[in-house]
Amino acid sequence: MDENRDKIDNEMNKNEEIKENEQKINNDCNCGCEHCGPDGCSEEDCKECDNDCRCKDKNENKDANENVGASAASPETEKDELTLANEKIKDWEDKYKRLLAEFDNFRKRSEKESAMMIDIGASMILTKILPIVDNFERAINSIPEDIKENSFVDGVDKIYKQMLKTFEDLGVKPIEAVGKPFDANLHNAVMTDENAEGEVDTVVEELQKGYMYKDQVLRHSMVKVKK
Known about the structure:
Elements: H1 2-28, H2 43-47, H3 54-71, H4 75-141, H5 151-169, E1 172-174, E2 187-193, E3 203-208, E4 211-213, E5 216-219, E6 221-226
Parallel strand pairs: 2-6
Antiparallel strand pairs: 1-4, 3-6, 4-5
Helix pairs in contact: 4-5
């Protein structure tokens, strides 16, 4: 009888162990495949198992977490990248400002050079016209008094005045000479007169009229100076 009792106890103990193992397996894995041993599934077993394993999910979650951790940048890294981006932006802004300043200087220089070229060209043309104006003046000054009322003379005088008006509109004006102190920048002294009335180094006579074009001398006045 004792033997039978011992056998029964052994069988009960075995059943308890089997239940514990099954419980352990169920705790670790729910696939119930042949790869699951008494100690549950291992990673190698689950690689060969087509069923849903808890440990497989756990491994996948672990891999996903590792990937997320690898892809997520640390605050220090993000700060370094932001600093680098700001430095690049500042560098491009500096380059843009320098380029804009250089272009503005180039534009101003080009406009100034263009204006100078226009003035040089205008000066050359006006200088060639001045002898024609001189001839008009000589012709008008040589007209006898008795024919000054002649219509032809009046027409010549009007043409002369029209030329002077055109010169004035272009920025050309006569240089004042007679009675003014001699100025080598404006006057060209070709004669002197010690007996002439007036102060010393004063222009007493204008032999040829001089002209200014804007701020430059188009032609110096040819004058006689008191010495």
